[in-house]
Amino acid sequence: MSEEANKNQYSADSIQALEGIEHVRMRPSMYIGDVGPRGLHHLVYEVVDNSIDEAMGGHCDTIQVTINEDNSITVEDNGRGIPVDLHKKEGVSALEVVMTKIGAGGKFDKDSYKVSGGLHGVGVSVVNALSDHLKATVHRDGKVWEQEYQRGRTLYPVKSTGASDKRGTVVTFHPDAQIFDQTIEYNYDTLSNRMRELAYLNKGIRITLTDRRQKTKEGDFVHEEFSSQEGLKEFIRFLDSNREPLIKSVISMEGEKNDIPVEVAMIYNTSYTENLHSYVNNINTHEGGTHLSGFRRGLTTTLKKYADSSGMLDKVKFEVAGDDFREGLTAIVSVKVAEPQFEGQTKTKLGNREVSAAVSQAVSEMLTDYLEEHPDDARIIVQKVILAAQARHAATKAREMVQRKNPMSGGGLPGKLADCSDQDPQRCELFLVEGDSAGGTAKMGRDRNFQAILPLRGKILNVEKAMQHKVFENEEIKNIYTALGVTIGTEEDSKALNLEKLRYHKVVIMCDADVDGSHIETLILTFFFRYMRELIENGHVYIATPPLYLVKKGAKKRYAWGDKERDEISEEFGGGVAIQRYKGLGEMNAEQLWETTMNPEGRTLRRVTIDNATESDRIFSMLMGDEVPPRREFIEKNAVYAKIDA
Ligand code: 0RA
């Protein structure tokens, strides 16, 4: 191509590219979900996914992720390097096309096996458009090539800057504060959890994470390395590290059915909770979908067939149903789908019909073999299933009690509930308050138009260690169901929560700001997590944050939520202040509680989110399980809050 033609072509295409970039910058949420912390971290996943693809194609084995001092991120791999030669159709370097053409990423490399890609699979050009600066460096064919960009626009054509004996791609980007106006600060734990997860999901790849903003006691940068030889098998052991296994080893399989790669790993433990995690193209499908229903079906039919033929069900008088096969089960299903259709509220539910049968068949084959080869384990599993069925029948009775007492079915509201007068759930708030005395203060301090109070007595039941029927028989828990107006069981799913008649759209947990309070808060959260997860997923659950101190000098008074704030106020007041430390809600009078914690004008409510269900599950099983030492350490670090968005 002559230089002139090249130029013309370049300008025509570059106009299109700019339109794409402008669109991304105008509507970033369409591409990355949101512009809060979630979207911010999504940028990293998007870039890492490209390297994962390269690794899955067998071209690289190491991906290094670095959080730099200025919150820019560097992702480096030792793959083939993004091609830098002329892209015939576009008339510029292929590197430039990948980096600037919105939508080019996925279609670029047709021949290679390409199924990964971020949640929206949008490609690195979107990251570029949303970064105030990005630099791409490619080591390829003995040379180093680079190009830099500002808000998605090239700063200069791709150039070679010297020789190189390496291979690979390095991308460094700095998120644009004009787009991410809440924060551009990366959270180490969030990235660490995701990199660990990716290492388990893609065995054999080494992923390192370095935080150049933080140093360890030894003076090194905070750093972790993740790699897994056994993949999902190891992931299961990690997830269940705080639970007691019921069978000796993790059951696992890996294969391809109807061109769909399927990987499954599972184990039974002695707990009563079902713990299923599913992934499509490395994306956690929180809302499940066809792969998960395929797994359930395969599991149920295979176990049922085995149980029937073994004669173990002969003397069982009650019906054994689907749910019973999953009590104490921890499982991961991971599939790769070429054109995934994501549905559901958060677009994390797989819709592709063909996947269901593929997973179901894979699970049946895997499990049939396992049961035949491990008759002892098979017996233990079937026994557990029978016990679960028995408990479920007891629970059904207890649950019917919960439902009968529901206000909509005429049973009346709990006596301890101080309800609000407004009838519109959208405006109404329910405060769950620890103890009768704080409950009394809250009743006096609230705005009774839209705020209701439900005092809970002392420590509520630890649902992590209780069988289902015990949970439904528990007074405090029954009160929560009744007050909220939610019922259990829909046509589709006997365990699903029915939120149609939810009476309050904000459910606020209000506990003392001390160790006991945080324990109670964790117990309540555990209950919501295990029994009312939809309530959390729909954004209805909040945590109140009462102040820790009252700083006073003469007529001046201010509340403080931390030591630093306390000292700052004290300094502002010129010293000589009186400081009151609030040990509990009960020490505040009604007016103070209103002012600081309940009044929508000045309070801080933290919405509880499940941004990582896998990690939340592990944490709840640790916090509430049998093993005391890790729990103590964890509560002391107060990291429960790490799972909660401000
Ligand atoms: C397409 C073709 C080739 C490499 C890549 C894509 C590639 C992309 C990324 C993104 C991050 N790291 C990457 N590494 C490689 C190379 C084709 C060839 O060399 O024949």
Describe what you observe in this structure.
The chain is an alpha+beta fold and 646 residues long. It folds into four domains: 3-226, Histidine kinase-like ATPase, C-terminal domain (Heat Shock Protein 90, 2-Layer Sandwich); 232-393, Ribosomal Protein S5, domain 2 (2-Layer Sandwich); 412-546 and 586-637, Rossmann fold; 549-581. Helices cover 39% and strands 22% of the residues. A hairpin with a 2-residue loop joins strand 6 and strand 7 (153-154). The structure holds 3-[3-(1H-pyrrolo[2,3-b]pyridin-5-yl)phenyl]propanoic acid. The site of 3-[3-(1H-pyrrolo[2,3-b]pyridin-5-yl)phenyl]propanoic acid has 12 residues, from helix 3.
Characteristic terms for this protein:
22% strand; 646 residues; 39% helix; disordered C terminus; Ribosomal Protein S5, domain 2; Heat Shock Protein 90; five-stranded mixed beta sheet; nine-stranded mixed beta sheet; single chain; binds 3-[3-(1H-pyrrolo[2,3-b]pyridin-5-yl)phenyl]propanoic acid; Rossmann fold; alpha+beta
